[in-house]
C-alpha cells in the first residue's frame, strides 16, 4: 500500500489518479472533482461559502468517524457530544441557511459539493440516532432531493460501493491490514 516509488506523495491515502495526475489529500481531491464537475460554485464568493460549510461539516463528520475508535468507557460521553453538537450547533446552522434564502440548495440554488457532503453527514447522523433529524425539515427535504438524483440513488442501493458504518469487526479487520 505504501509505495516507495513516489506514487503516494505523503506515503498515505487517499490518493486518486485522475486526468493524468496522482492527487493526494482529501480536500485537494474533493476540490478538484467538485471544480471538474461544476459542483464548486460559479465564483469566488460561492466557493468561499462552499468551503466554509464543508469545513463545518468536516468538524462534525470527524467526531462521528472517530466514534468507533473511542474506548468503550468514553463512548456514551462521545455520543452525548455528537448529539449535542448535531442538534444545537451544526444542523441548526444549515437549516437556517436553507430557510434564509428559500432555495433548494445551500449555495447559488444549484447542487454543490457542500450539499453532497451535508447529505452524507445526515446519513451518518441517522445511522447513529434517526430521531436527531426530527426538528430539521429543510435538511430532511434536501436529503430526499439529493438522494433521488439518479447517480446518488444508484449509489445508495444495496450492493453499491457505499460502505456500512464502521463497527468493531470492521475496525479489527482494518487494524490487521494496517499492522501487516
From TrEMBL:
Keywords: Transferase. It catalyses: RX + glutathione = an S-substituted glutathione + a halide anion + H(+). Residues 1-41 form the GST N-terminal domain. PROSITE patterns: GST_CTER (PS50405), GST_NTER (PS50404). GO terms for molecular function: glutathione transferase activity. Residues 43-166 form the GST C-terminal domain. CDD domains: GST_C_Alpha. One of its GO terms (cellular component) is extracellular exosome. One of its GO terms (biological process) is glutathione metabolic process. It comes from the Eukaryota. Its EC number is 2.5.1.18. Belongs to the GST superfamily. Alpha family. This is Glutathione S-transferase. It comes from Myotis brandtii. The lineage of its organism: Eukaryota, Metazoa, Chordata, Craniata, Vertebrata.
